[in-house]
C-alpha cells in the first residue's frame, strides 16, 4: 500500500485508496473509491468496475433506501464517445427493457425497482460506476 508523505494542517484530508480486487467474472473492481478510513466523513459509496467482457449481474430486481446512479462510460480518454458495448437493463415493476449502447448515466431514485442487468457485448472495455447517495 502506498503511504502519503504529507505534513501540514490538511494532511488528514488525504487517504490511501482501498484495494482493487478481481471479482468472480474476472473484472477489476474497487468496492468503493472511498476508503473505510474516510467513512466517518461521508457514507457516500462509489464503486467502479472495468468491464472487459460480457456477463450477467448477480443482482436480481431490487430497490434501495438510497439514491443510486449507474454510469457506463468509455475508457478512451481521447474519445469519450467511443463506447463499444451493449447493456440490457430492466427498469420498474414492469421490468421494462432498456438497451444501452452509448455513454449513459442511469438514475434509480430511492424505492425504485431496477435490474437485473446483462452486459451482452463488449467490443472495447468500459467503465461501470455505481454511486450510492444516502438520503438525508
Ligand atoms: Zn441497485
Strand and helix map with partners:
Blueprint: E1 21-22, E2 28-30, E3 45-51, E4 55-56, E5 67-74, E6 85-91, E7 96-100, E8 104-108, E9 114-122, E10 126-133
Antiparallel strand pairs: 1-2, 2-3, 3-10, 4-9, 5-8, 5-10, 6-7, 6-9
The structure holds zinc ion (ZN).
Q: How would you describe this protein?
A:
The protein is an all-beta fold. It contains no helices and ten strands. It has strands at about 20, 30, 45-50, 55, 65-75, 85-90, 95-100, 105-110, 115-120, 125-135. A six-stranded antiparallel beta sheet has the order 1-2-3-10-5-8, with no helix packed on it. Strands 4-9-6-7 form a four-stranded antiparallel beta sheet, with no helix packed on it. It is globular, with a radius of gyration of 17 Å. The relative contact order is 0.25. The site of zinc ion (ZN) has 5 residues, from loops.
Short description:
The chain is mainly beta and 136 residues long. Helices cover 0% and strands 41% of the residues.
What brief labels describe this structure?
about 140 residues, mainly beta, six-stranded antiparallel β-sheet, binds zinc ion
Count, helices = 0
The total count of strands amounts to 10
**Beta content:** 35-45%
Which stretches are low in confidence, meaning pLDDT under 50 for 5 or more residues running? none
> Kindly, what is the distance between the CA atoms of the first and last residues, rounded to a whole number of angstroms?
33 Å
Biggest sheet architecture: 6 strands, antiparallel
In spatial order, strands of the major sheet run 1-2-3-10-5-8
**Given the C-alpha coordinates, what overall shape results?**
globular
